[in-house]
Write a structure and sequence with these properties.
Number of helices of chain B: 7
Strand order of the largest sheet of chain A: 1-2
Protein name (chain A): Ferritin-like domain-containing protein
Number of domains of chain B: 1
Radius of gyration of chain B: 17 Å
Helix content of chain B: 55-70%
Pfam family, one (chain A): Ferritin_2
Distance between the termini of chain B: 19 Å
Organism (chain A): Mucilaginibacter conchicola
Order of helices and strands of chain B: HHEHHHHHE
Organism (chain B): Mucilaginibacter conchicola
CATH architecture of chain B: Up-down Bundle
Largest sheet of chain B: 2 strands, parallel
CATH class of chain B: Mainly Alpha
InterPro entries (chain A): Ferritin-like_SF
Structural class of chain B: mainly alpha
Number of strands of chain A: 2
Structural class of chain A: mainly alpha
CATH topology of chain B: Ferritin
CATH architecture of the domain at 57-214 and 263-275 in chain A: Up-down Bundle
Oligomer: heterodimer
CATH topology of the domain at 57-214 and 263-275 in chain A: Ferritin
Shape of chain A: globular
Order of helices and strands of chain A: HHHHHHHHEEHHH
Number of strands of chain B: 2
Helix content of chain A: 55-70%
Strand content of chain B: under 5%
CATH superfamily of the domain at 57-214 and 263-275 in chain A: Ferritin, core subunit, four-helix bundle
Largest sheet of chain A: 2 strands, antiparallel
Strand content of chain A: under 5%
Number of helices of chain A: 11
């Protein structure tokens, strides 16, 4: 564990972290010079207490959110790593495009691992994956995921859109937490950038001419991917009521515009049901 | 923390900008009518005015409302005076984005009711709407600024429902940002000036965002409760 690395990492996001942890900034910064075993042994506990005081959340709540996020990032990182390693799957013209997404997912894994470890938590390890969605039988709904590029991109789109929804669903659990919430929102936005980019790839490759960079739902169906097996991943995206305002009725806009203007969250339970026992192998 | 945003990209006509700055209320008023003709009921001609977003959650919602007003006004102009040589696909994208931003603007106006700040008067004098490069560079600046603004203000929100709504909007703004970047240069959807080495989108404070937004507004927006006095 390297407590000081994490504080330095946090400082990049939250320049006032030292002030937040302890108004006596110098006392924290100079703690490295104590040099005593007692101080070093007490640090993890002290850090947890400091975070609780500073941000008003229990560290277990924050760690739960971070490990949940890491579970999904492991899944995504493995997906792009395996896809890009599969000879003949990704056309040369799209390799650099997908490599950027892989780069970000791998970076998210490392970032979350570092944060969890530095908060004295235990980072979840990568699982065993079946990207056909068949729970290790290799015969799920996406049997051709690594042989048919169109299906690979469809799964990528579903993963990215689901990732956006998953992070969004955790935001209230991190309310007011400048460091972790801001970091989570930073990943959330990058997942949305990926989703937009994958959707544009699918559009431009004429795999689905109607695909937009945003999710365009009908009045009754959230899923706009054309992949029926992913309906549950988009459940609720058709919502057009925001903060008590029915956008279709109040603003006289279509369901397509009203639904696309807002992305919807998913709970941890919803996301777990979507990926565990299908993409994430359970024994 | 420094921001890397440079909204003054594309074809900036400084001479014209300076002229308009000193031309006074007569020119400004004429411009207002042109930009907001279809919303006459809400036009407040106040070219020299300022508007403060207020404090607490109302302040953050007004901050978002201000930025959405700016984006909606921009894309309304983009669609009304489509740039030279625009393709059908690109016009459809711009029309969709305009509609999303108008929905965001009207949503905040409806949600804030009497707490809402005034309708802001934009200043787009430095944008050449006939030029694709100028329009897309400005669009990218606005979308990137919007994402950084929502991400940077998230922790200030005290009501969970408002945080969720901000989250619902910011991912749509990020989708826009990535599309615009890809239209400018395919594959530039996670540029280094917006995404850091940890794969996190950068964020910006209110005091960093508003001075940039104000360069595109005749009505200057302040945030005294959030350390920005204009």
């Amino acid at each position: 564990m390297n407590v000081f690395n994490i504080i330095e990492e946090i400082e990049k996001v939250d320049p006032e972290v030292y002030e937040r942890l302890n108004p006596r900034r110098a006392a924290i910064k100079n703690i490295t010079s104590f040099g005593s075993k007692v101080a070093a042994a007490a640090l993890p506990f002290a850090l947890g207490t400091m975070f609780k005081k500073a941000y008003g959340q229990s560290s277990s709540t924050v760690l739960d959110v971070l490990n949940y996020a890491l579970t999904l990032e492991h899944l995504e990182a493995a997906f792009y790593t395996q896809g890009l390693a599969k000879a003949g799957l990704v056309p040369a013209a799209n390799t650099s495009y997908l490599a950027l997404i892989k780069r970000d997912e791998v970076a998210h894994v490392k970032f979350l691992q570092d944060v969890i470890t530095s908060l004295n938590g235990t980072a979840v390890t990568a699982g065993t994956y079946d990207f056909t969605g068949g729970n290790n039988k290799g015969n799920g709904p996406f049997k051709s995921v690594f042989t048919d590029y169109a299906q690979f991109l469809a799964v990528a789109q579903v993963f990215e859109d689901t990732g956006v929804r998953a992070y969004k669903g955790q935001a209230p659990a991190l309310l007011g937490n400048q460091v972790v919430l801001t970091a989570a929102l930073g990943i959330h936005a990058v997942e949305a950038r990926h989703a937009s980019a994958v959707r544009k790839l699918r559009h431009d490759l004429n795999q689905d001419a109607n695909t937009k960079p945003w999710i365009v739902s009908t009045a009754t169906l959230g899923n706009d991917t054309g992949v029926a097996a992913a309906n549950a991943n988009y459940a609720g995206e058709e919502n057009v009521s925001q903060g008590g305002v029915d956008l279709v009725a109040a603003l006289k806009v279509s369901n397509a515009i009203a639904s696309a203007s807002f992305d919807e969250p998913l709970t941890k339970e919803q996301v777990t049901a979507l990926v565990v026992g299908s993409f994430i192998v359970t024994t | 923390m420094k921001t890397d945003i440079n909204p003054i990209t594309g074809n900036v006509n400084m001479a014209r900008r300076s002229f308009l700055r000193y031309a006074g209320a007569g020119v400004a008023t004429a411009a207002v009518v042109g930009v907001t003709a279809c919303h006459k009921d809400r036009v407040i001609v106040n070219p020299g005015g300022t508007s403060d977003i207020g404090s607490d959650d109302i302040g953050i919602l007004n901050y978002a409302y201000a930025l959405e007003q700016l984006e909606a006004a921009f894309y309304t102009e983009v669609v009304a005076h489509a740039y030279t040589g625009i393709s059908t696909v690109e016009l459809n994208y711009m029309t969709d984005i305009r509609d999303h931003e108008v929905v965001h603007r009207e949503f905040f106006k409806a949600a804030l009711k009497s707490n809402a700040i005034m309708s802001l008067t934009p200043d787009f004098s430095k944008i050449d709407f006939s030029n694709r490069t100028s329009v897309l560079a400005t669009a990218k600046a606005f979308e990137d600024l919007g994402v950084q603004a929502y991400d940077g203000a998230g922790f200030l929100i005290k009501t969970p429902e408002y945080l969720t709504i901000a989250g619902k909007i910011v991912s749509v703004e990020a989708r826009h940002a990535a599309l615009i970047a890809n239209l400018i240069s395919p594959g530039s959807f996670v540029p280094d000036d917006q995404v850091d080495g940890n794969g996190l989108n950068k964020s910006a404070t209110i005091a960093q965002v508003l001075p940039i937004a104000n360069t595109f507004l005749k009505t200057k927006v302040t945030a005294k409760a959030f350390n920005y006095n204009g």
